Amino acid sequence: MDQGSAAGTGGTLISLSDSEQRCYSGLYALCQPDSSGKLAAGKVAELFRASQLPAETLHQVTEVCGAKRLGYFGCGQFYGALKLMAAAQAGLPVRLESIAGELPLPVFVGITNELEMRYPNQPLTNESQSHILGSVTGSAPRPPADRPVLRHPDTSMDKQEVWSPPQSPGISPPRSPSAYRSYPYGAQRNGTDTLLVYEAKVPGLPSVPQENSSPSHYSLRLQPEQPVITRVASVERLVERVEVDYSDDPWRITEEQREYYTIQFRSLQPDLSALIMGTVAKNFFTKSKLPILELSHIWELSDVDKDGALTFPEFCTAFHLIVARKNGYPLPETLPATLRPGFVEAAVVTAPPSEKIGSVDLQMTSRQGVTTKQEARDESRKPEFSPKRIPEPHEKPTQHVSTLKPDSPQELDANMKSRTRPRSYSSTSIDDAMKKVEEPPTPPPRPQKTHSRASSLDLNKLFQQSGQGSRRSQHSLSAKSGWLPPPPALPPRPPATQIFSFIPGSEKSSQKVVQQPNFADFSKFREEQETSVRGGLSTEDLTPPKLDSTVVHQGHAPQKPVRRKIHPESQSATPPSATPYSAATLTKSTQRPPPKQKREIQMAIRKNRETNAVLTRLNSELQQQLKVVHRERVTLESQLELLRPVAST
Amino acid sequence: MNCDSMNYPLYIRSVPTQGELKFHYTVHTSLDVVEEKISGVGKALADQRELYLGLLYPTEDYKVYGYVTNSKVKFVIVVDSSNTSLRDNEIRSMFRKLHNSFTDVMCNPFYNPGDPIQSKAFDSIVSTMMVQAF
């Protein structure tokens, strides 16, 4: 190439040697230049990442070679950039002057085999893994790279931990493809295959070296669980092996991670170019068990366009931040450069769509069904449907909203901004009522998201029982009869039209609730929550479904879920429509909470009784011991008495 | 400081941190004035002018400015009377910024409306605003 003989960057001409020329032209071709000679940004970004230079260096390179100014990588800029990278890898500062002389070729990890061929002057160092490059110059960047590379293993592994049952990290040195196969990608064994293919890029790449390197790659990733200890171990391993992992930068998303994120994104939103709604994302990220404050911060960082929804790059960013956080990284105050949407976007382009949705989806959707607060309890019971009526002060009302069709989250998002104070506390039952309503007309995926409070109870079972029990509830006042015949605290099940007969039911329920002392605590708690939250808000808005004593406003209770979605000012329009169906479902929903509460309370009572028994036993034993000790004391005292006259004399 | 429709303080920040209680008190009393103003305005339309309530209440030491959003979230700014350099426009712009950052906070699905605002971004915006203004 003519241009190959000189790279013009900022007006200075830099001569390239023959080998450099060959190499650069190969790389240039690799980066898919279009007709005008500009290079595909994604490819270039990838290549730069493969150089294993720190992000700041790469930015410098981009700047110095003039691409930043131009906005794209033309041939000259590209060549200049390559030279600068070579310089950087040699440890020289990124300046035009430093590339004036002869330099070893820049090292790019994992790009093509062809290129490897072109690096004859890159002897593989003590890295036992061949093929992919240990560069002489790379040894300097290597040690700092160690740490971040470790982090990446940690992140990817921990990410796995977060989302899938923890796999054993103790996979033996995976020099063999078999170990590689067993890499715990959750259920997505196939994902590794994809990655293999992906990393090969050039089909001609022999699979063997790839596999060899990948196992090492992944062995690094398998370090994870005790970062401290394994970090030491993996440092040693790293020294032995070639780092296939890219970055020195923990904030950089590796390809593998990107794939994983893609899969996750797909599970939430099949269209990669569409948005994930805020509530959906929230449910998803809350499963990571990070504190809400941190999740909130992560959201703020990653939702750059502040639209309350995540695009795919934003999602990757957020996911990456979560993963990093889980690995102990403090959250940055601002978005690191490598996580900026532009950067992420560029990388996204190059990420192959991974098609391992089948098994993954199952897992993901199943996980989505898990509630946020109760995941610990409920993870095993995800298909169930029963929102638990435990008062959760930080219950997120938006969870319920997420059950609604995607379009309603749209308006929800719009309205969330203008919403004042949705009642987070007792509205959940109403929300569930709403959910119930939505449920029949809508397809299955919805139910999985409705669990704000899944419990071990199967909702359907509960329904049947409450259906049966409600008939009886009016008659029997026996509390604690075991919840299979649902406790009488259930309001009677009025026909749908009789909204207000609901009220006596609820009143009765509140009475019954009060009768059971343990219930009272709960109800008080919830009342407190509700009243404190409600404050002076117009009473017609938020009334607790169960414990409401204001008769008139019971009819407004169904408004609550409606409020979730619709602007409070338009409430007047919605209640009429809301009330008919929500009333019917309200009864169902209100019947659901008491049994659950009761059951819980009963369990608590049982536990208390047991502890009581244990303690009384303990008490009696101690009493025995006390008696024995007393006796001893008495004997000793008498002996003392006997001895004293002797001693005194 | 901003309060929601329940008049719960969602967020309070004052630059001279001593005497904060006095500010709290001031703000709460000014809420009455705000209520009065918004109840007086019976129009359904909500343009920026109405959102900005202007000088609510000048006392001996300080002036109180109010701003209410469409969702009845009230923003109250208390400034020292000695600080006469603050013009109305500046206050308006401050409120606008507050409103914008508040909506950003709201956008965050992890934020429960009604919770005290703990967003760092919001904090930083408020701090910069206060620093530049006072």
Can you put this structure into words, describing what you see?
- The complex is a heterodimer of chains A (649) and B (134).
- Chain A contains 28 helices and four strands.
- With 649 residues, chain A is mainly α.
- Chain A has a two-stranded antiparallel ribbon with strand order 1-2. In chain A, strands 3-4 form a two-stranded antiparallel ribbon.
- In chain A, helix 7 (142-163) packs across helix 15, helix 12 (255-268) packs across helix 15 and helix 21 packs across helix 26.
- Chain A is elongated, with a radius of gyration of 33 Å.
- Helices cover 44% and strands 19% of the residues of chain B.
- Chain B has four helices and five strands; from the N terminus they run ββααβββαα.
- Chain B has a five-stranded antiparallel beta sheet, with helices on both faces.
Characteristic key phrases:
heterodimer, A: 649 residues, mainly alpha, 28 helices, 2% strand, disordered N terminus, B: 134 residues, alpha+beta, EF_Hand_1_Ca_BS (chain A), RALBP1 associated Eps domain containing 2 (chain A), EF_hand_dom (chain A)
